[in-house]
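Title: Prediction job returns without error message
Component: structure pipeline
Severity: low
Priority: P3
Assignee: unassigned

Description:
Job completed but the reporter wants confirmation the result is attached to the right record. Sequence as submitted:
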Amino acid sequence: MGKIKILNPGMMTTVQDLGRIGYQQFGVSVSGAMDQIAAILANVLVGNKDNEGLLEVTIMGPKIEFQDTCLVAITGGDLQPLINNNPIDMNKSVKANKGDILSFRGIKKGCRSYIGFSGGIDVPVVMGSKSTFLKAKIGGFEGRVLKANDILSIGNINTSINDLSGIQVPADFYNYGGKNIELRMVLGPQDDYFSQEGIETLFSSEYVVTNNSDRMGYTLEGPLIKHKEGADIISDGISMGAVQVPNKGTPIIMMADRQTTGGYTKIGNIITADLPKVAQAKPGDKIRFKKSSIEEAQDSIKELQNKFLQLDKEIKRQKESKREIIKTSNWDIKVNGISYSVKVEELKN
């Protein structure tokens, strides 16, 4: 088991996984990684299970000292990662040695990066998850954002670091983080509370991400969406990507740390495959909504699943190529008076 030391925590760095599932009926938010695709990729690249704990970094990256040799991968938003002030590739596993320093030059694209460590981050599992839920101060590292001088333990990896070092995700797998974002939305469950003019406004207008946006929700600025009468409803459940429209008429996209229930109308829900686009949006980015269907939402998830299946095959291929035999030798050895002929294969890397 290794350790890392936080020299500078950056703007907002927390421990996350894929969320705290099954406790919303008790008022406990799901939390978890805002960009779950990037989180899974970071874990896959360093040999972890999809749901292992990792670091979520927002806008300004941390500075981290490796106190033991470790495999690391950075995915999601490009904050220009460096090891010992030398640039390293995004979406690629990199070996970090004891004493190495991971830092970030500054935001280039997107909003959130994910740092996966071989073996995962060893923090207590709370209600089935390592995710940090800041409002309740549970999960993650002491239920809070990381601070300077925090020391985190890294778990044990089940494979060789050398076997995984240099593995990368194909460049066309992940391409989120633009300043102009199109989000597909399925109408409902309270779209009947809105006037036809209000619905047309939603799909024909451009909205801007405001500074009042965080892990709980993204408040947008733009043309007001009109209700037929009012925005109040009997409180019901809120899913990730639900688009609430209060009486004021400005949409709010509910995200990972959203409350479990709410009493404002929800005009629609962003389809699951497009949620990472929201997670990578930052203040000033522009959003347009496109009407979608449940069938399209389901098909997009199937496409994503197929991409991950193909990625699994590609990673296996890369591992095999690293073990390419570059030289074969026959050695004659004698043990206890008995001669043996042994074939020795020298492997690449």
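Comment from assignee: result matches the submitted record. The mean pLDDT is 92.
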